[in-house]
Structures are given as C-alpha cells and as structure tokens.
Amino acid sequence: MKYNSVMVYLKTMYEYNTVKINQVFTAKDGTSLSVRCLPGTYTFEIDHLATQEVIQNDSLEKTAEYIIDYIASREMSTDS
Predict the structure, then answer these.
(1) Containing H/E element for 55?
(2) Which residues are CB-contacts of 41 (< 8 A; sequence separation ≥ 6)?
C-alpha cells in the first residue's frame, strides 16, 4: 500500500473526527490493524486486532508510516 493512499484515509478521519470512522488495514498474512481518530481529538488509535495491543499517535505522518511499515514487515515475513 502506498503512503499517499494511507494518508487519504487518515486525513478523512482527521477532518471528520466528530464521527466514528474506522479503517482496517490487512496484510497478506491476514493480520490486521484497526485505525480510528478518537472522537473530538486529533489522536489516532491503532489496534492490533490479533494481539489487542493499542497504540496512540497524534501525527498523521507517523501514523501513516507505522501502518506502511507494519504491512510491509508482515508481507516480507510471509515471503521468507
């Protein structure tokens, strides 16, 4: 997935942070991240669906990089 594509999703959530928008990103190995902007804030919450680990981040760019890096690392591990 490309950085610009992820940024489009995140900017939409950021702009409409007063409504509940949730985006799920799934790697080739089936693992997923659920991402949302916490209501009334500019904080992104990233939930690793398999482990239930939750990370929060206030940066659009860092959140996009995290998603891209996570998906890339999972896809590389399935090809090894």
Answers:
(1) strand 54-57
(2) 17
Q: How far is CA 73 from each of CA 18, 39, 44, 53, rounded to the nearest angstrom?
A: 32, 30, 21, 17
Sign for the CA dihedral angle at 3, 30, 17, 61 comes to: negative
Single pTM value for the model: 0.84
Predicted confidence at residue 12, as pLDDT, reads: 94
Structure tokens at 10: 């995140």
User: In 3-state terms, what secondary structure has residue 25?
Assistant: strand
In the predicted structure, residue 74 carries a pLDDT above the cut 90 = no
Instruction: Of 37, 8, 32, give the one whose Cα is nearest residue 22.
Output: 37
| C-alpha distances in Å from residue 77, one per residue of 70, 73, 74 | 11, 6, 5
